[in-house]
Fold this protein.
Amino acid sequence: MTWEEVGGMDLTKNIDRDTLAIMDVPGSEPQMSIHDGISTYGNLTTVNESPITSGEIWAGTDDGNVQVTMDDGATWENVVGNIPGLPERTYVSRVAPSAHAQGRAYATFDGHRNGDFAPYVFVTEDFGQSWSAIATGLPHGWSVNVIAEHHRSPDLLFIGNEIGVYISIDRGQNWTRIKSNLPVVPVDDLAIHPRENDLIVGTHGRSAWILADVTPLEHLSSELLNEAGQLFPQKPVTMWAQKGDWPFYGATYSASNPPRGAVIRYYLSDDQDEGDPAENSATQESGNEGPTPDSGEFSLTIEDARGEHVRTLTTPSLAGINEVVWDWRYDAPYETDETPNEGGGGFGGGPPQGPSSFLEHTQ
């Protein structure tokens, strides 16, 4: 593997940091530990190649430049001056060219190093010649670290800031925080797995958090949010037999495996508790504890390709995107108080269903 220098020009402002003041003290004057533990100033912070336009590369710097080339780096144009309302020398946290439209790119900026905690998110449709702010709904006081565009849905965007992940289903016109079980944590990076369609979140604390299969988010729209409910498309599921022994791993650490069964996702507009449907997310495995006293019930019926009844799953009726796991079994012939409607090792469950095609109905 060999490397070739691109362009041969400095894409930064090439500012001597000793000429900059720190808390009104000129950098040229003696200061204790002035440069200890920090990187040099004038660095590239983000570089991304357009997935649809050959030769188009975007770069951002820590001293506030946004550079774009259309000829594989032979020449560059600094387009940061076209961004309205952006303070000078604001750290460029991410520039992401679109996978859906030529000329479109997203840029985020982090001003906290200059005492500026406003959320800066912009989009261009003409290779950086003009920009529009798309930060409506993002909280003030938390700088934005990263933006990611969904590879299939041009309207579906994600950003990571200092308190978590936000989603937009209208290409940045409005933003809503994803809660689920993601704690309040700084998010430094986002990626969407092209095959599994998982949202992968990298946190400042060096953790990886995965929101499995964001396909339902692709189908969210203002029209759907006004409907009473909606089943989302179901992906094919591999049926497999679980080994019968029960190993003991002791001190061995491992994350939980995906649920055994078909994960069925659906949207409900209302429940008996208060909450924002776009923020809530409930997970209930079939055969586990039933609906809580504080919520209503939602029933989902599964039939085989012949229209024969296979299973009825009952879960709490919670507003938002929910999921229930069908464990590939028929309804239980009887229930016990200790393990209601369970199968397998819990006994009392219905027999397993063989491979087939199934239909889902709601009630």
Remarks:
- The mean pLDDT is 84.
- DSSP finds two helices and 24 strands in the chain.
- The helical segments are 215-218, 222-225.
